[in-house]
Amino acid sequence: MNSWIETPEGGRDRGLRALGRAWIEAMIRPRRFFANGVAPGDQAPGLTFAAAVAAVFVTGWVATEPAAVPGIAENATLSAAVVVLVVTALAAPVGLHLTAAVATVSLVIASLEFDGGIGFRERGGVSETVQVVAYASAPMAIAGPPIPALRIVCGGYATLLLLVGVHTVHGTSPLRTLLAGLPAATFGYGIGYRVVAAGRALLG
């Protein structure tokens, strides 16, 4: 999970510039990005990307809504820094792998249901699913400010990217893509990034 392959391509290079390029490519050329930027067993770049997205998201959130920061330390700035650190180092990796687990189980169920297990044997591996979930979260980097409409739009686009990634990497049919992608998107982006809460706030 923490190893880099020797000949990275697409968004899997090291450094801040590579992260920025991966974000842009995932946002504007997702099909090409998922086809070229996802490799078997190459989870570390995706994990780094997901952590960076989570860090930018929570930084934008605490910067625009200081009242949301719990009083962990003696002053608000230090408390916000602790929140960003915990989200980046702990919550993001755990959330990524839980969301990927939901997507993997959904893929297996959809494959067994519609292909008699054939689709399960032909699909990409779990590491590719982790990477797809990570890179599909790209829009959530700009969803930090507590603006319900913004979070809903970003969550919708992240869901679309996830569906594109699942279809591109796993070669699923449109129906299986929806069955595999929507539960993971609901859990990872809807709950993890508070898109569902934003929808409730907007409707309320």
Percent of residues in beta strands: under 5%
Number of strands: 0
Number of domains: 1
Low-confidence stretches: 1-11, 117-122
Average pLDDT confidence is 87
What fraction, in percent, of the residue positions are helical?
over 70%
Choose one word for the global shape. Answer: globular
In short:
Pfam families: Yip1. By secondary structure, the chain is an all-alpha fold.
Question: What is the element layout, followed by pairings?
Answer:
Elements lengths: L15 H13 L1 H8 L5 H22 L11 H40 L2 H5 L3 H11 L11 H23 L3 H18 L3 H9 L1
Helix pairs in contact: 1-2, 2-7, 3-4, 3-6, 4-6, 4-8, 6-7, 7-8, 7-9
Keywords:
204 residues, mainly alpha, 9 helices, 73% helix, disordered N terminus
